[in-house]
Amino acid sequence: MERRTALRWMASAAAALPFTRLRVFAQRGELPPDAVATLREVAATVLPASLGPAGVAEAVDRFLAWTRGYREGMALEHGYGHPCLRFTPASPVPGYVAQLAALDRAARAKGGRFATLDLDTRRALLDAALTAAGVGALPRRPNGQHVVADLMGHYFNSSQAADVCYQAHIGRQTCRLIAVTTKRPAPFQADGGRR
Amino acid sequence: MTVHECDVCIVGGGITSAMLAQKLAELRPSARIIVVEAGRSIFDRENRGRYRLRTLEYGEHPWPGDYIEDQQAEGIISMTMAVGGLALHWGGACNRFSREDLRLKSLYGLADDWPLEWAELERAYGEAERRLNVCGEPSPYPGDERSTPYPQPPMPLSYNLEVLKGWAGQSGYRFNPLPMARNLKPADGRGGCCVFDTCGDVCPSGARYSPDFTFRQLMAPKRIALHDRTLVRRLVVDDGKTTVAAAEARHQDRPDEPVQYRARHFVVASGYCWSSHLLLLSSSPRFPNGLANGSGLVGRYMNGHRFISATAEVAEQTYPGQNMTHSLISREYFRCATGQPFVRHDLRVWESSAGRTPRLRDDGGRLLVGDELLEDWRSRTKGSAVRLRAYVDVHPSIDSRLTLDPAKKNRYGDPMPRIEHRLDAATEGRMAATRAHVAGVFGRMAKAGGGRIVSTGEGDYLDHPGGGCRMGTDPATSVCDSHGRTHDHENLFVVGAPTTPTGGCTNGTLTFVALTLRSAEEIARALPT
Asked: Which residues contact B234 (CB under 8 A, 6 or more apart)?
């Protein structure tokens, strides 16, 4: 089959799929706009304001990219010493959507959208949501327990966040010359660490 | 039935198999060598960067399909069954044992001596380091002399490790960069180290040695044939003789069609678990206890080392994440004076972020958000955490066993292995003193450097396992000789980890490779020039 013919065939086959199936597929990997809007409001509270609006938006974008890249049923690391076979569970996105909707409802019950509430109220809402979800600690990787903890874990456990914390260009788990690692990590400049 | 004929049939496709095939192909270029591996080949180096990212981001296993679900063992330390074996995802540590390992009985009245001289093993170590392109520097301790230099200079210490070397050195122990099978520069078809720092998962550049590179290099010019996804289920002995005639196998895609390998020599290079397993599975009316098992010791004396860890807090400032897979090693306790309580162990130091990770709630349980979380995290990053570990020399009892478990079978009905490690009475008797000694060593380091130990722990399995086909000179008390040739079958060899009588007190892979390279010379001698 010619490449162009194959592409045309694939496009027509996709078009023949029932719309609802496509929608379900999209829902599993993609947060809908209203959920994203709530997530961005929450992010402004739970991520460091010192990142600036652009930095916070970038952290949210990376988290959203993470959700889009999630694949169900993939073999997880087997471990060493006491190995076992485990697979990635169902996409956390449907749960995220429900959790964000619940946060939005709870915020409105307190008088407005999440971003408009005072910090103590926002903290109380988050605390209640995380406690109800049984979140005890920041997850090393998003685990679907609660979208807020997952967003926070995704950012705060990143190489970038470590650099921000230490105010130094460590570059954990980034490709770099060996010689770079032999020196004390360069301190952040006035640019807030962006190079 | 499909029949393949060759001069040497190597069962297993891990690091010892790769080294053996490489050396045999050099020594006997005309020899027909077939490597048979139950798992699949994962040769897509170009995808390894992506696999690594998926591991970091999603925790996905970085070696897709490197296991066979119904070919697993109880008590095994890794599920990996693929071309490259566990060395697909080893850290690359290449420590040598010491001469004391070979003379435990003579020197201390413990366990058993190995049936070879240190000079022979030392020479093989040099060759193994050359083939694996190890980077390292000579140990400062007398008794660790080398006959050949390392092929590469040591891995440059990160700023963090340099700081910690200064801290650790105040104890009086002398530390070196850990020798590693990592290319500092591109070499031998593999890339140079880019400090991706995921050696133990996957190395995108190939700087950390893995056997798939060797197999590809051998296969391209057809110096060997590699039959992957083909499980050898049993070895069959010639009628009326004691030589092995064939290996019977099945390919994953044709499970109903037997495959047979006929060879002049058979080498079981299937690691510490599956080597003993294959020999036990190969029982017959003439050999009811399996092959090479006249001594009854196949699957016995399964060994490895215990490990004791600690985390120290020190005042020196480091920046976790520079090169967390590299470490310092001290060989201070590789040798123990005779007439003193026996204790041997290595001593390792890593940078660590323990206690210096972001947290969701403060000590009072208050939810932290935004900049206050960042500030809380930052406030806990003063000074450093240090990871300490000792691999402790422990000795197996005869009842440290691999057995066939009739309750767990693969798709062909073969019983799967069960491994139960047991230590001998002398080891058990001194474990409390050993723990106290190691705690004292950690404490001495902390005290000398002005730090404190904040936690300690002990592993609940034996690391770098070996044994099951131990070597020796007496056929009544061992399975094979020092070259891995089985006492019962002159054309059947076992190589690497299974042949070790004891597990030493540091990473074993270099020793497994060195022993195998020595075996290769003996196997080559039996082949036509």
From this structure: B247, B248, B278, B281, B282
Query: Are residues B367 and A130, on separate chains, in Cβ contact within 8 Å?
Result: yes
Q: What burial letters (b/e) apply to B513-526, b meaning 16+ CB within 10 Å? A: bbbbbbbbeebbee
Chain B interface mutation, best of A42, A56, A64, A77, highest count of B Cβ atoms under 10 Å: A77
Query: Does residue A186 belong to any structural domain of this protein?
Result: no
Cβ atoms A114, A103 nearer than 8 A: yes
Long-range (24+ apart) CB contacts under 8 A made by A20-28 are A27/A93, A27/A94, A27/A97, A28/A72, A28/A90, A28/A91, A28/A93, A28/A94
Q: Measure Cα distances from A151 to A46, B8, B369, B370 in Å.
A: 9, 56, 12, 12
Q: Could you please report the per-residue DSSP string of B420-458?
A: E--B-HHHHHHHHHHHHHHHHHHHHHHHHTT-EEEEEEE
Cα–Cα–Cα angle for A24, A27, A31, rounded to 5 degrees = 170
> Which of B193, B371, B377 lies nearest to residue A50, judging by beta carbons?
B371
Task: Provide the token pair at A37.
Answer: 């809007």
For B107-135, write each residue's pLDDT tens digit: 999 999 999 999 999 999 999 999 999 99
> How many Å lie between the alpha carbon of A15 and the closest alpha carbon of chain B?
30
CA–CA dist B508, B255 (Å, integer): 35
Tokens of B430: 């001194």
Q: Domains in chain A: how many in total?
A: 1
Quick check: B369 contacting A, CB < 8 Å? yes
The complex's ipTM? 0.93
Give me A38's structure tokens: 């709530």
Residue A152 lies in a domain: yes
Q: Which residue has the higher pLDDT, A24 or B337?
A: B337
What sections of B28-133 are H helices per DSSP?
A: 48-58, 104-108, 118-132
Which amino acid is located at B489 in the chain?
H
3-class DSSP state for residue A149? helix
User: Which tens digits make up the pLDDT trace of A92-122?
Assistant: 999 999 999 999 999 999 999 999 999 999 9
Is B195 touching A (CB cutoff 8 A)? yes
Residue A67 lies in a domain: yes
**Does a structural domain hold residue A66?**
yes
Q: What's the angle, vertex CA A96, arms to CA A90 and CA A100, rounded to 5? A: 165
Locate tokens 């619940």: which residue? Answer: A102
Which domain covers residue A41, as residue numbers?
27-157
Q: Residue B529: what pLDDT?
A: 84
For residue range A69-87, list pLDDT tens digits in order: 999 999 999 999 999 999 9
DSSP A73: T
Q: What pairing do the DSSP bridges indicate for beta strands B347-352 and B384-392? A: antiparallel
